[in-house]
Amino acid sequence: MGHIYNFLKELKPYDFPNSKRVRLGSDGDGGYVLLNKGLENIEVVYSYGVETNSDFEVMFCEKYNATAQLYDHTVDGAPLQKNFLRFKKEGVGSKKTTHQNTIENHINQNGDSNKRLILKMDVEGAEWDTLFHIPNAILGLFEQIVVEVHDLHSVPPNYDGKNLSKLTIEKRTNVLKKINSLFYLYHVHANNYAPLYYIGRFKLPNVMELTFVNKKYFKSAEYSKVIFPTEFDRPCYKIRKDINLHFWPFYPNLTQHISHMVSQVGWGGRWREVIGLLYKHFESKWKSVMITMKLRRPTSYS
Questions:
Q1: Cα–Cα distance between 299 and 204 in angstroms, integer?
Q2: Segment 60-84, tens digit of pLDDT
Q3: Whose CA is closest to 23, among 243, 231, 246?
Q4: Which of 38, 76, 175, 260 has an alpha carbon within 20 to 30 A of 185's alpha carbon?
Q5: Domain containing 24 — which CATH number?
């Protein structure tokens, strides 16, 4: 179980004094949350995994007067045609092949190594190998990174915990350590298309949207007291409730959460919600006990 702990430890979010968030993109899957600082200075968005949605790139470029380099080998063009969107039918990976190339080669081809950059990546699992092999010097060119990480515990549609093996988890832990050496993890959101997996005293989403901010540009970080999901988050699967990340390492603690709720409108307007929150925590603990006793399946959306 130690390898699960070491992996989750790398997913502890940070915050900054007086930081503010901004959401860009679709009101559902395809929308992402960034730290709302320095974005007006970004010149180019590198976006991997376009498919049928480029709302994030369009909103970012229109708001901050940037351009976007879009890459996806599974479609023939960008879903929206804009002068500031430059599409290439090519995937991303750890080395150049017939259908893919590296982030380093793309940046060099475009002559963007001296520009202000951010990275958006949603490549259905290819992110792990790509980020494992990218040189630190190239990774550090990005001021913010928003990446959707996939298949954390299982390969759909079989949510069997296959990817929780020591070998797989340790490799992915190394990927997160590499990113964390250069960036702070700022925002976390669980994609609710897939369930949580209970393993021992831990819970793990299968797909997560993670926002990292570069340590070169953002200082005075402290462990986050933010309760996720936030007001900026939206369920990826709109007909299912968002997944509450009210557990370690994403959660400050129950006392902090109650204090946050009460501070907004006082006890009078929140006591029912506080009781509901306490019940949900008890329910989660009970699920863990039942799973440990093998009296129920290890997956749940709450």
A1: 10
A2: 999 999 999 999 999 999 888 999 9
A3: 231
A4: 260
A5: 3.40.50
